[in-house]
Structures are given as C-alpha cells and as structure tokens.
Amino acid sequence: MTGTGTTLVTGATGTTGSRTTAALTAAGHRVRAASRGATPLPGAEPVRFDWYDPAGHGAALAGAERLYLVPPVGDPDPAAVMLPFLRRARAAGVRRVVLLGSSAIPEGGPGVGAVHRALPGLFDEWAVLRPSWFMQNFTGTHAHARSIRDEGAILTATDTGRIGFVDAEDIAAVAARALTDDRVPDTDLVLTGPETLSHDDVATVVTQVTGRPVTHRRLTYEQLRDRLAASVPLEFAVMLAGMDRAIARGAEDRTTDTVQRLTGRPPHSFRTVAERELTGSR
C-alpha cells in the first residue's frame, strides 16, 4: 500500500482522523493533517482547516490526490459547506474520497446522507464508511464518557436496544485500506464490532474493567431531546434523540464482516477497548 500521492485528512485531531493519520503514516504514506489549529501530528504535514473558512481550503487541497472526509461536528446540514468543498477538491485534482458517515444515516438521508448521495457523481473513486456507534464514546471526551466519570451513569433513550459498537481503531484501519488499496470500494461500508451490546451491557463491562459502579439510566425520547438541546441546536438534538429511539426499536441490532474483509483481522471487542483505554484511569 505504498506509493500513493498525498492524502488530506480532515478532522485530523479527532477520534477517527487522528487514528487514520497514524495508520497512513505508519504505512509510509504522505499525509496532510488538517485541523483548525494546524496541530502537528507525527509523520504528517499540518495544515490549518476550518469548514466555515473557505479562504484556507485551497492551501489544504494543494497537491492532494486522496481525501478522508470528516463532516463538521454538530452541523445539521453539513452538505451546505461540504459540497462546495468537494467540487473544489475535484477541480484541484483529488481523485479518491472516503467519507465518514453513520450506520444510522443511509444515502440521501438527513445530515451527511445528502453528501453520501452526491459523492458518486463527483468522484470516480469513493467510499462511504458507515460505522456504528463508537466504543470511544465511553472512554474519551464524549458526553457518555463524561457522564460515566461525573455521575457513574450512561444516559440514553435506547432502552434495551442493542448496538454493534465499533472501535475507532478498526474504523481507521478500514479507512486506510479504502484510501490506498488499488481496488477502490465504490460503495458504502457498514462497520460494526464483533457483537451487539445494550447500554446495560456496556455499563457492566465498564464496571468490571474499572472497578467503579456504572449504571445505564433510561430516559424518554423527550427527556433526551431536551437534555441535548441545552448544548446543541434543537434540530440536531431532535436527530440524535431520534437515533436513540430507533435503537430502542432494533435499528442497530446487527453486525457485519466489513472490518474482517478489508483488514484481514477480526474487529476488537468492547471489553478489549475498555481494558486498553480505561484501566489507566482507575
């Protein structure tokens, strides 16, 4: 997988962007790591990038052939800024794009679904990664991780619904292959871990790994919507709470073999990730 041109990674300091950057540089690829602060990352060229400041987009795209595309966080209509950027990327010579989407949002759906729908018409080489919920939501800076630390609880409207939680390391491994393999996926790829878990199961594993009691506190759709609306736009809060309601009805109770097929190894379990990322926080 060596010998490809420069890959521009947007959101390069984020959960999947940082890991994708690390996977690409470790394999010997040239990477331009784009972030608002042009943060240096080992082996990558830093560049300042802000979705809402097009004046810097040209410098970020200069000489790039491939693009890992992370949507702007919290924007209910990311297509408004992403599609003009993608048209500019095509004109600048980018030929392959891998978009980070969501298992909950199909092509043409709300939010990033509109970008998914437009991608095949813009690029001959493309893939849309549609991961399930990140395992790192419980170990990093996500609201769930904060509520675990602050309240000893995970708050959702998922009831007993099950999810094929996926490790961000596995997402990055698939992203690196999709960006650099000779054969481009030209499709969307649903990514999950090896099993489905309820939030009660997650709370049990975190409790066992850390030795600190953690429970799953069940909210109604309305309670979760209003809680989220205190920190994000109402439209986005409605969408997120709606995803939890869909999970409660079984929408994410599935696993796929995508990680195994594209990387040649099985996906990591949640217990493995919890032991890797939480044991140092006791």
UniProtKB/TrEMBL annotation:
Gene3D superfamilies: NAD(P)-binding Rossmann-like Domain (3.40.50.720), UDP-galactose 4-epimerase, domain 1 (3.90.25.10). Pfam families: NAD_binding_10, NmrA. It comes from the Bacteria. Coiled coil: none annotated. Residues 128-247 form the NmrA-like domain. Residues 11-107 form the NAD(P)-binding domain. This is NAD(P)H-binding protein. It comes from Streptomyces rameus.
